[in-house]
Amino acid sequence: MLEGKTIGFIGGGNMAEAIIKGLLSGELPATSILVAEPVAARRDFLAGEYGVELHDENLDVVRRADIIILAIKPQVAASVLTGLEPVISPDKLIISIMAGISTGFMEKTLTSGARIIRVMPNTLALIQGAATAVCPGRKATPQDMEIARGIFSRVGTVVTIPEKQMDAVTGLSGSGPAYVFTFIEALADAGVKNGLPRDIAAQLAAQTVLGAARMVAETGEHPALLREKVTSPGGTTIAALHTLENGRFRGLIMDAVDSACQRSKELAEK
Predict the structure, then answer these.
(1) Taking the CB of residue 52, how many other CB atoms lie within 10 A of it?
(2) Which 8-state DSSP code applies to residue 31?
(3) Domain residues of the chain, as ranges?
(4) pLDDT tens, 111-121?
(5) Are 77 and 105 a contacting pair, CB within 8 Å?
(6) Between β-strands 67-70 and 115-120, what pairing exists: parallel, antiparallel or unpaired?
(7) Helices (DSSP H) in 65-102: which residue ranges?
(8) Which CATH superfamily is domain 7-169 in?
(9) How do beta strands 33-36 and 130-136 pair?
């Protein structure tokens, strides 16, 4: 699928690095990966750590790459795409991981008829544990989608969705790790408040979340049913759940996702 292909990254930040790690772990040669990164120190790090080829100019990478991964901030999408437009041809596959930037916007800017796929991974790609959603642009082929799924399956789980659902993915799994990190921090703080040493509380909190997530994923049971199994009548867990309900715990999580979805839509309009 990727054999003989050259993959070019526009942007060499953390997410690009995570994808590079996944590609190399899948036995893709480092010589097939090019990265355009404006920060010299970052270029030196990526070259030394992964043996990939670094450039400071985007066009040097785009001219040579078969697959181009746009790993840049959505705020600079318009200027970067306009700069790339002269060297983008229909034979190149464009994969974007920019939040809030639609395939329609990219197709309008890249006037040559580019094949575009939009992808929303999350930061857990850094440990090959990402939740990633992909959707095709108008000209993307089934083979293009297979290539995109193949790339991102190397850093976690991949689902295919229609683009109209991408803002919801951004709010749920794109921003979701931050919600979970905050919950783990609060859980550990509660342990410290009740007498546990900080390191022990942090270890127990992280493992509890990890184990609970694995149980949901591996059993396939609804979280509510799993919760019932650990909630004894008149016990400690139901007392704690009552407190969470009084504080609108589930409602606040839903509100947080709504806020992230709305921000994703706002980014698309800029």
Answers:
(1) 23
(2) G
(3) 7-169, 176-269
(4) 888 899 999 99
(5) yes
(6) unpaired
(7) 77-84
(8) NAD(P)-binding Rossmann-like Domain (3.40.50.720)
(9) unpaired
